């Protein structure tokens, strides 16, 4: 036992210097950054933000220590006329910092003087504007509450109900007791009118007297009540939703309209993109901004003008996403152009850049970058109501089924009423049941021309 304890103690004594050497071998990196919400922000004597969380995750993966300081001249990095670089890029070039971590755009000019990792965030150019800048209401917008398929289903249900009422009114002896002398009041045209009146909650008598006809009418009334409730509810949601289609859905719409002014930051890379583009649409946007002098001097000014309305602010999509998350009346359009990436800059030829790129890819594949994005771009707005959409037929399938059952039950009762009367008449007249039923059907299903002829004869007798 003493020998075993001695071996363990000797092993621990031998390993302690090795651990001290490993800790001493951990690189101590100097990191330069710039203060920008939400990438890097001050919190007392410490700094926090997306870039600081990303740096912490990278340090855990690659096992390095670091010291962070803010860039002295408060600049990202631009080359002057003499070829010298300022800002964070300049500090890395002069080896005043080992790494620069910030929303640094990966460009060809920067790639020549510093090493850049794989992008940790993708961005581009998009448009910010007020949510309530929407298209003018169309003439037939009241039809948008239901989808085309639903309207077709309602029309089919309407015609089916009218036909069922017409057929039941002819078959049922309780509704039309004397087909030889009486005229059937429920013609097909009257059935259409009666069904339409019931759908609009208006009376259009006469009403059916037979049980079969009343069952069909009650089912149709129930269907109409539910249908109207769904229509007005969905129409109200559709018209009151803030998610109306924006008048400006992209840069093509922006260039083709004259009602909304638009602009971008003066002297920004976004402006340079439009200025140097050969795309006709982007050139028209630049020429309009140059002609109207609609540039803004700061991001805050662009946001303020967008909030005031009738102004679209063009900027980097990730920055506009942050603005839209904090100003609930603003929204960023879906189209993004000029895609570019934010990367970490390091000393040209540094072997650590390869490891950083691999670590960034691993964090992306593990969902860590998406988590950090959702953490620092969290919206302070209340959740918007679900986007209004036309009501689909499957939403009313229960009512369509009830209506179909009601129509079927009504027709079945009318047939039973007719067969019961035919069986009774067959016994009284001592005729074949089939003969009596056939005569009843032929009398009740006679053509409209015969009814018109009878009506004319009755009118002639009245005149005589």
Automatic annotation (TrEMBL):
One of its GO terms (cellular component) is postsynaptic membrane. The keyword Ion transport applies. CDD domains: PBP2_iGluR_non_NMDA_like. Residues 1-24 form the signal peptide. Residues 28-379 form the Ionotropic glutamate receptor C-terminal domain. It is found in: Postsynaptic cell membrane. Residues 454-464 have a biased composition (Basic and acidic residues). It comes from the Eukaryota. The chain crosses the membrane at residues 399-420. The record marks 248 as: Crucial to convey clamshell closure to channel opening. It is a multi-pass membrane protein. InterPro entries: Glu/Gly-bd, Iono_Glu_rcpt_met, Ionotropic_Glu_rcpt, Iontro_rcpt_C. The keyword Transport applies. Keywords: Cell membrane, Disulfide bond, Glycoprotein, Ion channel, Ion transport, Ligand-gated ion channel, Membrane, Postsynaptic cell membrane, Receptor, Signal, Synapse, Transmembrane, Transmembrane helix, Transport. Belongs to the glutamate-gated ion channel (TC 1.A.10.1) family. This is Glutamate receptor. It comes from Oncorhynchus tshawytscha (Chinook salmon). The lineage of its organism: Eukaryota, Metazoa, Chordata, Craniata, Vertebrata.
């Amino acid at each position: 036992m003493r020998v075993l304890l001695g071996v363990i103690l000797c092993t621990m004594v031998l390993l302690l210097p090795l651990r001290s050497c490993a800790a001493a071998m951990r690189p101590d990196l100097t990191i330069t950054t710039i203060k920008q919400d939400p990438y890097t922000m001050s919190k007392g004597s410490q700094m926090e933000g997306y870039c600081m969380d990303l740096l912490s995750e990278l340090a855990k993966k690659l096992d390095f220590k670091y010291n962070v300081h803010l860039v002295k001249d408060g600049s990202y990095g631009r080359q002057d006329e003499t070829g010298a670089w300022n800002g964070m890029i300049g500090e890395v070039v002069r080896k005043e910092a080992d790494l620069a971590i910030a929303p640094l755009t990966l460009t060809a000019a920067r790639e020549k003087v510093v090493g850049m990792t794989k992008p940790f965030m993708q961005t581009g150019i998009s448009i910010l504007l007020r949510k309530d800048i929407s298209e003018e209401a169309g003439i037939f917008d009241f039809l948008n509450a239901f989808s085309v398929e639903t309207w077709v289903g309602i029309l089919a249900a309407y015609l089916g109900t009218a036909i069922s009422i017409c057929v039941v009114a002819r078959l049922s002896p309780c509704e039309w007791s004397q087909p030889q002398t009486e005229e059937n009041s429920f013609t097909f045209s009257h059935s259409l009118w009666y069904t339409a009146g019931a759908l609009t909650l208006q009376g259009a008598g006469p009403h059916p007297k037979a049980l079969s006809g009343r069952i069909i009418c009650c089912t149709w009334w129930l269907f109409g009540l539910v249908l109207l409730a769904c229509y007005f509810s969905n129409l109200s949601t559709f018209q009151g939703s803030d998610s109306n289609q924006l008048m400006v859905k992209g840069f093509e719409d922006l260039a083709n309209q004259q009602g909304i002014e638009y602009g971008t930051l003066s002297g920004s890379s976004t402006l340079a993109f439009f200025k140097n583009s050969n795309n006709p649409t982007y050139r028209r946007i630049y020429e309009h901004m140059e002609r109207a002098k609609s540039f803004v001097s700061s991001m805050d000014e662009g946001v303020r003008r967008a909030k005031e309305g009738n102004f679209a602010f063009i900027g980097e999509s990730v920055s506009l996403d942050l603005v839209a998350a904090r100003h609930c009346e603003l929204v960023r359009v879906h189209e993004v152009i000029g895609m570019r990436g934010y990367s970490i800059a390091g000393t040209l030829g540094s072997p650590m850049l390869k490891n950083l790129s691999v670590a960034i890819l691993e964090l992306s594949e593990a969902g860590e970058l998406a988590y950090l994005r959702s953490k620092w771009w969290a919206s302070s707005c209340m959740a918007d109501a679900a986007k209004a959409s036309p009501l689909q037929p499957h939403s009313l399938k229960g009512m369509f089924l009830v209506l179909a059952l009601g129509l079927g039950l009504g027709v079945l009762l009318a047939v039973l009423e007719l067969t019961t009367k035919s069986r009774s008449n067959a016994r009284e007249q001592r005729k074949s049941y089939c003969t009596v039923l056939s005569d009843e059907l032929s009398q009740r299903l006679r053509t409209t021309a015969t009814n018109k002829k009878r009506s004319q004869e009755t009118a002639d007798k009245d005149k005589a």
